[in-house]
Amino acid sequence: MHDTKPLLANSDFPAIFRKPLEILQINLGYRCNLSCVHCHVNAGPKRTEMMSRETIDEILALADTANIHTLDLTGGAPEMHPDFRYLVRAARNRGIEVIDRCNLTILEEPEYADLAEFLAAQQVNIVASLPCYLEENVDKQRGKGVFKDSLAALQRLNRLGYGRPDSGLELNLVFNPQDAVLPPDQHNLERAYKQHLQQHYGIVFNRLFAIANMPIQRFGSTLVSHGCFESYLALLKDSFRADNLENLMCLNTLSIDWQGYVYDCDFNQMLNLPLGAAANPQTHISELRLDQLQGAPIATAAHCYGCTAGQGSSCGGALG
């Protein structure tokens, strides 16, 4: 796999600085039941990295100290972590909102047969990847049979109340482009998704998040192999919108990897860009100084243009 970090290092991206911390995005490990082409984590069934219970407890302690209102759980497939339910219960008992970055197909695995019911009982906010509403495109990007399993999972979630008005159970879907292009208008795409999924499969959901693919890890390597890395990076830079800078998720979010090291965002984590200025050493959660966090510089590189291009992009969809 091609390492794209050296290709992103020399960047003129504007300096940005931290606001008060509100959200912890936690990568519980790289194990996943899928190996998606667009995956910026390079996750898959053979990955063995997994967060320890000790680190999970340190995260909960940090959440208490910093008055965190949201834990955003990701992976891999975060649900495959043996302490996933322990962490969810502990956070919900504290009144903290929990977001599960779910690939949907995990809900159809026999050993996770009761997972959907658990998520509903804990009122977990589900953000589910469905990169297209057409079977051919989804299976091309994520693997044969993924679309059918995703639909079955969505229908199961709908039966539990997810995505339905006044249920309190939020179900949001995520779109990623198939190719080296920016996502289309999120509002119009959401309308098309809702119409197609309702009409053909009786599926409902709350919102669609249109997220740009980052030129890192598996997707970045694919760009290099196809000879279009530079053109994609040029597209991101040429589409830069300064007004997106005020809404970047890295301003109020910390990303924590499976070993407990802290980063400015999930993408920086995958590039091993340390918290703050690039010259700083890695910071472990046990060493984090909250009093020095607000106003601190955020480490940036050329991939940051992916979050500010066009309508903007974050883990919560378009910024503009």
Q: On the 0-100 scale, what is the average pLDDT?
A: 91
Described by strand count, sense and barrel closure, the largest sheet is: 9 strands, mixed
Q: Supply the number of helical segments.
A: 11
CATH topology: TIM Barrel
What structural class results from the helix and strand content?
alpha/beta
CATH class: Alpha Beta
CATH H-level name... which superfamily? Aldolase class I
- First-residue to last-residue Cα separation: 33 Å
Strand content: 5-15%
Approximately how much helix is present in the residues? Answer: 25-40%
Tell the overall outline: globular
CA-atom Rg in angstroms: 19 Å
The appropriate CATH architecture is: Alpha-Beta Barrel
Number of discrete domains: 1
Counting DSSP E segments of at least 2 residues, the number of strands comes to 9
* Strand ordering within the main sheet: 6-5-4-3-2-1-7-8-9
Structure description:
The structure is a single chain. The protein has 320 residues and is an alpha/beta fold. It has a single domain, classed as Aldolase class I (TIM Barrel, Alpha-Beta Barrel). The chain is built from 11 helices and 9 strands. The protein has helices at 5-8, 53-66, 84-93, 115-121, 135-142, 146-159, 186-201, 217-225, 229-238, 266-271, 305-308; strands at residues 23-27, 70-74, 97-102, 125-129, 171-175, 207-210, 253-256, 261-263, 283-284. A 9-stranded mixed β-sheet has the order 6-5-4-3-2-1-7-8-9. The radius of gyration is 19 Å and the shape is globular. The two termini are 33 Å apart. The mean pLDDT is 91.
